[in-house]
Amino acid sequence: MKINSKNNLAKTTIVLLVAIMVMSCNNKNKESAHAISIELGQTNLEMVKTLFQFMENKDLENAINGFTEDAVFAQPFNPKGADFAYNGKEEIKNGLIRIFSIIDTISYTDESYTKSADGSTVFVETKGKMTLSNGTPYNNSYVFRFDFNNKGKVTKVTEYMNSLYLAQTFGLIPSNK
């Protein structure tokens, strides 16, 4: 009987040691995954800040390089309709060319950045201080959502803005001024 007790104790001790080792490895994997998530989130946050600089400088080529080929740039509150979007890198590029041709100066102020817990999404609340090519000021408020793949490329941008102000400024509806 004592032999069995010693064997059982030894087996129990081995099982406990293996369990502790497995739990330790799992915790290290979780810590490693969390560290990667934090690093990716920081990289994505920096990418968004850089994209805004490219927009302010009207640097089309560098701005577009941050997008995947099948990226989407959606504007659900666009006066053209709730389903308005540029689909694919080429459409986004053409949209930016159009925007750069009608807006002379672009500046974003009062930026507030928030990233999701896993780092794959970055939100930006900002004010745009812009001047149209005809000299008209265009100062709208924005919230952007940037979604990233695991390689740090933008897969989707969703832009929310004051569409009433946009429509009035661009003459789509009469202004109340």
Question: What does it look like?
Answer:
The protein has 177 residues and is an alpha+beta fold. The protein is 46% helix and 31% strand. It has 4 helices and 7 strands. It has helices at residues 2-56, 60-65, 89-102, 163-169; strands spanning 67-74, 85-87, 103-115, 121-132, 137-138, 141-148, 154-161. Strands 1, 2, 3, 4, 5, 6 and 7 form a 7-stranded mixed beta sheet that branches. Strand 4 (121-132) and strand 5 form a beta hairpin. The N and C termini lie far apart (97 Å). Mean pLDDT is 82; it is low at 27-36.
Low-confidence stretches: 27-36
Strand content: 25-35%
**Largest beta-sheet characterization:** 7 strands, mixed
- Return the average pLDDT rounded to an integer: 82
Could you give the count of β-strands? 7
SSE class: alpha+beta
Please count the helical segments: 4
> What is the CA-atom radius of gyration, in angstroms?
25 Å
Terminus-to-terminus distance: 97 Å
Shape descriptor reads elongated
Tell me the helix content: 40-55%
Reading the helices and strands in chain order gives HHEEHEEEEEH
Ordered list of secondary-structure elements with their pairings:
Elements (H helix, E strand, L loop, with lengths): L1 H55 L3 H6 L1 E8 L10 E3 L1 H14 E13 L5 E12 L4 E2 L2 E8 L5 E8 L1 H7 L8
Parallel strand pairs: 1-7
Antiparallel strand pairs: 1-2, 3-4, 4-5, 4-6, 6-7
